[in-house]
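User: I would dearly like some help making sense of a protein record. I have put the entry right below:
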Amino acid sequence: MLNSIITLPITLPTLLICLVTAIALGIFTALVFSFRQHHSKSFMLTLALLPMAVCIVIMMVNGNIGAGFAVAGTFTLVRFRSIPGTAREISAIFVDMVIGFTLGMGYIGIAVVFFLLAALLTMILTLVNFGAPSKIEKQLRITIPEDFDYNELFDDVFAKYTEKAEMEQIRTTNMGTLFELSYRVVFPDKRIPKEFIDELRTRNGNLNIVINDFTEMMTL
């Protein structure tokens, strides 16, 4: 069951078995990683097709060490997505690649066992909300005019409505006429008081204020 089914030269039945298995596991992987999560249609399609693509490439270089190193180097340079993705999406891509590599070597049993374990672990950890912060943490971006002194400008507002507020970045925008201040803020509960936003607006001249979920982002 855990032995490779590939013998050289590769036969058509062997090729079809590996590719069909790759497609099935790719679709199941897309469904598992979309459990209680929202992903774009293009990303779901990528997860469904990636194992088959990796599988066929590995089959073509099977037994050729030089070509194998070249392919490995190529994969390190490929940007699977043109926009940043969450850590969960990066994990889904790596799971897909492992499945494709394993099937490309003909180890169908190992690929299925790996998928089942990865799927079970992903669903369980999602259901128990593993790794969720105990408090609500947000990224706050405030735009102020360039002639404002940003030091301690909002300290009393933060002390009133948040448990913690740390400035992480200062950058100029609009040809240097504005500052954008980025903070990591922790609220005591899930509610973001309207009064908090109103008081910030009175301090920054009613310029832009943006609050986002603080999510780990990576780019491949």
The first strand starts at residue 85 and ends at 86. Residues 60 and 83 are 30 Å apart (CA to CA). Helices lie at 12-33, 41-60, 65-77, 87-104, 108-127, 155-161, 194-203.
